[in-house]
């Protein structure tokens, strides 16, 4: 993976912070909005620097949270009115557009 700049980290952080309650975005949505080459870069940034952000509003393109985040992420989203269908978040209904 190419070196990630402080500017890229701050851009990703700002985009995540801008996702409103009751909405979700994918790692790919953020990568596109930030001008990054891969959603994996967003994942890396989120894994290392997102404790103070609404991280639960960022989901994989499948709409299915990662197993290690599943319960907590769905609990937080449910509190914001985001419900799942068959274990997936219905992106067509609750996806935020930048």
Key structural traits:
single chain; mainly alpha; Arc Repressor Mutant, subunit A; globular
Description:
With 98 residues, this protein is mostly helical. It has a single domain (6-94), classed as Arc Repressor Mutant, subunit A (Orthogonal Bundle), CATH 1.10.10.10. It is built from five helices and two strands. It has a two-stranded parallel sheet. Helix 1 crosses helix 2 and helix 2 (27-34) crosses helix 3 (39-48). The two termini are 25 Å apart. The model has no long low-confidence stretch (mean pLDDT 94). InterPro entries: ATL_DNA_repair, MethylDNA_cys_MeTrfase_DNA-bd, MethylDNA_cys_MeTrfase_DNAb, WH-like_DNA-bd_sf. Keywords: DNA damage, Methyltransferase, Transferase. Pfam families: DNA_binding_1 (PF01035).
Numbering strands along the chain, what is their spatial order in the largest sheet? 1-2
SSE order: HEHHEHH
Supply the number of helical segments.
5
Integer average pLDDT? 94
Classified in CATH, the superfamily is Winged helix-like DNA-binding domain superfamily/Winged helix DNA-binding domain
- What portion of the residues fall into strands of 2 or more residues? under 5%
* Low-pLDDT residue spans: none
What number of domains?
Answer: 1
Helix content: 40-55%
What fold name goes in the CATH topology slot?
Answer: Arc Repressor Mutant, subunit A
The CATH class: Mainly Alpha
How many extended strands? 2
Q: What's the end-to-end separation, in Å?
A: 25 Å
Keywords: DNA damage, Methyltransferase, Transferase
GO molecular function: methyltransferase activity
Protein name: DNA methyltransferase
Pfam families: DNA_binding_1
């Amino acid at each position: 993976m190419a070196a990630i700049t402080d500017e890229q980290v701050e851009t990703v952080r700002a985009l995540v912070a801008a996702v409103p309650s009751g909405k979700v975005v994918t790692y790919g949505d953020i990568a596109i909005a930030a001008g990054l080459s891969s959603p994996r870069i967003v994942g890396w940034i989120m894994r290392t620097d997102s404790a103070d952000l609404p991280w639960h509003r960022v989901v994989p393109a499948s709409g299915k949270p990662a197993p290690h985040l599943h319960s907590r992420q769905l609990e937080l989203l449910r509190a914001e009115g985001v419900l799942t269908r068959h274990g997936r978040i219905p992106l067509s209904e609750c996806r935020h557009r930048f």
